[in-house]
Amino acid sequence: MKFLCFVILALCLPVASVLAQSSSAGSTELVTVVEALFAPGRDLLDVKLTVDSMVDPSANAQAVKAEIARMTDAIKSMAGEEARSAEKLTALKRYLYESGGWNGNKPFRYDLDDPLGEKSANRLLQRYLTTRRGNCITMPILFLALGQRLGLTMTLAEAPLHVFVKYTDDGGAVWNLEPTSGGGFTRDAWYRQKLPMSDKAVANGVYLRPLAHEEATALIVSFVVEHQIEAGAFEHAIAVSDVLLRHYPTFAYGLVKKGSAYSGLLRRELADKYTRMEDIPADLKTKADRWYAANIEAFARAEALGWRPQDGQTQ
Which fold would CATH assign to domain 60-196? Predict the structure, then answer.
């Protein structure tokens, strides 16, 4: 377990070492804002746009909502007034992924330069709408937002390092839709082949399961945790992670990010300041012991669910 901790520390340390936050609010205020995102009936698009504004205050949520409303109306016109779910889905795919006057002959495409959305700016929904180049976060969220506004039964689902859409047709059958590839139907076996995962993780619902509304909310809000880690605001990242895990206790990715935040805290407060153990003040040693135990616990809980450090990595 110690080896796992240090492997993850190496992989997940922040790219910025300066403690920063997009506002002056402390952890308590941030937790209050995040908790409000789980209010019953809160629309997932609204959650995403609030999160984007927390990460980048220049994000224009109203402009995005207006554009999505316009897109929804155009898709409804393409599908026809009496369209059934299958016809609406076909129109949605055509609108997004086929070139035509409806999208200015500029269809939405997978951003091969940043397919995982590792650059924070590329995780913003507004940027995706502007550039028409998306990733495995923005593409399924836009697909979901439009589908739900068309009256389609959809939610998000997770695979290792990936998000896709689960769609329930008029007959009650549930299908995987892959928004990064034209919204095509995709089998679970394909995800398991392309993005390796353990049988245990699948059995425990870590991957390939339709997410409940609260769980989908937690998945979207995890962007805030990532942002705080990148900024070196590890205490804030931990506080937000705790909120997410209260609403989604089996959120393996959230557990991993929480563990990574504790790793960053240990490095910032110890490894970057002290070269000898005897130089560390006693009160800081006590805190460090708690942080280390919390780090170990977070990764242990993720492992118990079937998560592995190599998930999603092909040989």
Answer: C8orf32 fold (3.10.620)
